[in-house]
Structures are given as C-alpha cells and as structure tokens.
Queue: 2 jobs
Job 1
Amino acid sequence: MESTLGLEIIEVVEQAAIASARLMGKGDKNTADQVAVEAMRERMNKIHMRGRIVIGEGERDEAPMLYIGEEVGICSDPHAKAFCNPDELIEIDIAVDPCEGTNLVAYGQPGSMAVLAISEKGGLFNAPDFYMKKLAAPPAAKGHIDINKSATENLKILSECLNRSIDELVVVVMKRDRHNDLIKEIRQAGARVQLISDGDVGAALNCAFSGTNIHALMGIGAAPEGVISAAALRAMGGHFQGQLIYDPAIVVTKEWADKTKEENLERLQEMGIKDPDKVYDTHELASGETVLFAGCGITTGNLLKGVRFFHGGYRTETLVISTQSKTARFVDTVHMVDQPKVVQLK
C-alpha cells in the first residue's frame, strides 16, 4: 500500500494545504475549509483506488464536504468513470480533515494542517461525528498512563516514564469552558499548560516527537480527529486513548443544540458500537495491518512549516508516517507553477 499510494497521499494533503493557505489571515474559516475539501477531493479522484471516507466532515449524503460514506478514487471521477474497472482497484478506508484548525488559518495563527490517514478496508474505526475524550503521550509512557486515571495520577506516571519532574512537563489542552477544572488540576499538580484554540491532531503528533516540548494532550475534542491522531501515534509507537462522548451536557456547544443523549446513543447503536463507554487504544482506532498518515502544514507549527508562496510557485512541508516501513518522513517540496524567478531554499 505504501509503495502504491505513498506519493499520492502526499500530493492529496499538499493540494489541500496550498488551497487553504491562500485564505490565510483573511478571517474566513468556512471558505478556507471549503477550498481545502475541494482540492483534496479533486486529487483523490485521480488515484487508482476504491476509497471510502470513514472519517469525514459530516454524514449528509449531499454535503458539500468529504462526508462519511463518500466514495472517492478514479471511479468517482466523472471523466474516467466509463473506463474504470472497480475490481482491479485496491480498496481502502480513509480518514480526512482537509483543514485541521480552520480558525488558525483564518486568523493567521500557527499549527493548522491538512491531514489524512488510510488503511485497508475495515482498518480504521468508523467514528461518528461526535466528541471524544483524549489522552496522548510519548512512546515511553505507552501502556503506563490511562485515560481513566486522574490528570494528577497520569502526570506522576508521565514524570517517571520521561525521567522529568512534573514542573518540566507541558500539557496541551484546548481552551474550552469544559476544561476549566482539568486545567486547574494540571496546574495544581505542578505541570504547565499550553492552551490551544484548535488543532489537537497537531498537539497529539507533537507528543510523539522528542524536542517539541509537548508531553501530553488531555481533554475533549472531535472524535474524527481522534481517529486520525491514533493512526499517526500507532505508527510512531506513541500512547493514545479515546472515549466517545455522547452526552450533550458534557460538551455544551451549538453543534449539539438539537441533540439528546438518547438520540446519540441510538446513533452509536446504528453504527454497531455496542459499548458507548468503551475506551479505545491506537490498535482499536487504527486496526489495519498497514496504516499511513500524512499531514501538510498550512500555517507553520512545531513540526511542519506552513505553505510559503514565491513568484512562480510555492513550497510545502509534509510529514508521512507508515506502519509498513516504520518510517516518519519529512517531505520538503517546491511546486513550480510558472517559470520561477527565484526558488527560495529556506
């Protein structure tokens, strides 16, 4: 799968990032997201595969987004459909977030990315568009910390695993009212808190790399992004656990204004999730034999530089992680659209 689709998925996230980066700082998060979706879909529909979106941006059949259940690949291209033989194509499941951190793009803030994860059919958890309680940490803490423990307990364990004092630890938490008690507990335990407005896939990724000065991600975020994070951290050997949140009282947000706990539980049953309180680890959220993750920086963050435009082209930086080759590759690409007058090296 890696040799067949590796370069293709790099180009998918690159095109989404480039499209979105053109809207950087313009205050229009919806358009920044929309153009990333369109660019991602257009490039995926040129790939010789039978792809199915299992993690997307919605569940409506006619949604103007990459929705859950949407089929992508060469057979979905109206210009190529007549010549397409589905039986000859590899079947894969795909999790996408074309613009992870739409607010970050809109307001020119660091850390937004175009991200996706792929695996063979059935290899990625088919999560609904719910919320998820998350815990991410470096490989040294894998299997030692636990999402069912308190933040204080986990910080003590993390301190031992990383051979650092608690006051040297940095925990990323999304700045939301629902996290006020969590933030207070982390600070009282002695650790430092880095608050982010959006983009917890990037925060989870940072946990897997030494030198980022981020040692854990805690709190509640979107479930689709949780599956993408789990795919990346599984390949990196990092720790990730997720637990679906189905009670709107826990996550007070306008997105769930018309939902009830009972309706959400019914939706989980429809999707075959029998235990709504189950805690999932990386191998359950990304269970495939081969899992690939790709993320391209839109705005510059800890791990990846954002898209840089120059006269005649642009430059991107992409991270590709594979369970197959056990590699994490940083791909620096110069895209020459016209004859460039200058190709900037740094």
Note: The domain at 2-121+289-336 is CATH 3.30.540.10 (Fructose-1,6-Bisphosphatase; Chain A, domain 1).
Job 2
Amino acid sequence: MSAPKPNPLPLSTPFPPAVRRAPVGTREKPLPLIIDCDPGHDDAMAITIAVARPEINLLGVTTVAGNATLPRTFENARRVLALLGVPDMPIAAGADRPLVRPLFTAAYVHGESGLEGAEMPAPAGRVHEAGAVDLIATLVAASPEPVVLAPLGPLTNIAQFITAHPELLSKIAHISWMGGAIGEGNVTAAAEFNAYVDPEAIQIVFSSGIPCTMVGLDVTHLARMGDAEVARLEQLGNRAGKIFAELLRYFAIFHRDRYNWNFCAIHDAVAVAHLVDPDLVAVVHAAVDAELGDLQRGRTVVDWLEPRLVERGRLANADVAVGIDAPRFANLLIDAVATFD
C-alpha cells in the first residue's frame, strides 16, 4: 500500500514527501530494540507489540518517572512483562526526576498507580540493579548489531545514557520517540506531556547526531481505540485481551472528560508499531528544537521548510510523523494482543 497521507494540519507550508529513515524489522532480521517507558496504559500496549511481533527482538526494558513516580512505573512495567509471559526480560529503573526540573506526573490521566483499571499479575522481569543507563549500555555493547531505542516517556534516561556513554553512540541505529507535537500540546497549549516533563533532555537527544523519529500528538491522537476495538479485544477470549479491554475503558475516561471523545489515543504504541510496519506512518524530514522557557516550556519547534533551514544554517535532525493509517494501527495492535494467553 502507499504511505498514509499527511494529516490536514492548518499549516502555511505543505509537508514535502519524505522517505523514512527509521529502520524496519523483518522476520528474517528482527530489530534489536530497547524500550524506555513510564507505564502508562499506552506504554503497556507498546511493550505488547514489541514482545508479540517477530520483527522485533526486545533486548530489555527500562523505566523513567513520568506518567507516575519511578517506583510505580517500574512496578507497572514488571507487571506488563508478567502479563505477556516474559519473566526473564532484563528490566531496570532509571531517573526518578527530570534532569533539572521537579517531576510532573499524569495521575489525572492514568490514575494514581499509572496503570489503573485492571488487576495485573505480580511483577516479573530480571531486574538489573545497576540501573537503566547501565542496562542500556550493557545491552548495546553486547549487541552484534546496532540497537534501536524506543523511548515512550520523558527522554531523561536516554539523555543520561548519551552523556555517560559517548563511546557507544555509534551502536545506536535509531531513536523512535513518542513525544512532542507540531501543533497543539496536551499539557499546555504549547507542549505534549513527555516534552513538557523534561525539555532539556530533548535538546541533548536531538543534538546527539543519532538518527531520530519524533512520533507526536499530531499523529498519535489519531491512533484511536474506541468501543468497537475494546469489544474486539474482549472477543479474543484470552486473559491479555480481557485485561487490555479493562485498561482501555479506564484510559477512555480521561479522553471523554478532557476532549469529549468516545475513544482513547494509544500514543506510545505508534512509536513501536512504526518499527514493524513501513506503511503505517508518514514522515517529514525536519529540524526539531525544544523550548525551555516558562511560557512555552516543552514546545517542540518543528521546521521542515528547506529554504528556511538553509537560511538559518540548520539541517534536519529528525523524521517527524505527520500521518498514520489508523485502521491499520488498530488491527496491528489487536493482532499483537491476540498472540498471548
């Protein structure tokens, strides 16, 4: 199929067509992947795709404070690993606060625990006591192939890894981050949540020279799961389908109250799905910067107009998602859940 058309955002300059620079896994050559997350209902579904799909070789999971405090996101990630039947997956806890700012969490979205709505199994996973940055470094150094990082929360852990291990950066093939927005934010008018929590980390990651994709709200707000999709999850007849249906019912409460939507947006899962389906997301090459000032804290400034970039002496430092095949995404996600008990 052809790539999805960009969304009709109210922009003065059109998106030029762009070929994705993110690698895509195949059954014959799965992508070695590390997920850094802050579960979070949509983080849980992103991990599900990574475990389920043969195009991904999930090497490990790290957690960061974001949607909830670090002890809660760490426990939530371990409970997701238990649900998915991967009790030996390496997992480590990372930063418990942003690089320079107080922690801002999203209990108003995900509940106090960060993963409200269903009874999850007891935590599992092979805990790496040395922490997230050390686990990332260990897995990257040991991998015979360059590794893809999929950060699904604030970029604090990834920024710390980049700063601590410059010798390993050549072994990072790509960073696929769920965060930011071209248009309106969801914490403030300017900023998406993950960007708002730690904008200083964005600057470190996007200036590192590592190829990046920014999968922001402009696309993830279209990655929707409503009543029909929740019913499909329940009809799978497995435990994972039942639990995810319950989680999404809780997650939908926020979307109904905030936006008057009858569906919820599964933001984080898009950043992982993008790595297994080359036709899922359309991108534009752009220069991305993060605002650090109080008024527009965390705003991701995205510039894709080539003449303007030339005038400013800038180069595109990222692919930015601008379109998604939403039905294809929902099918991919439900099919992933169907593979579990």
Note: DSSP finds 13 helices and twelve strands in the chain.
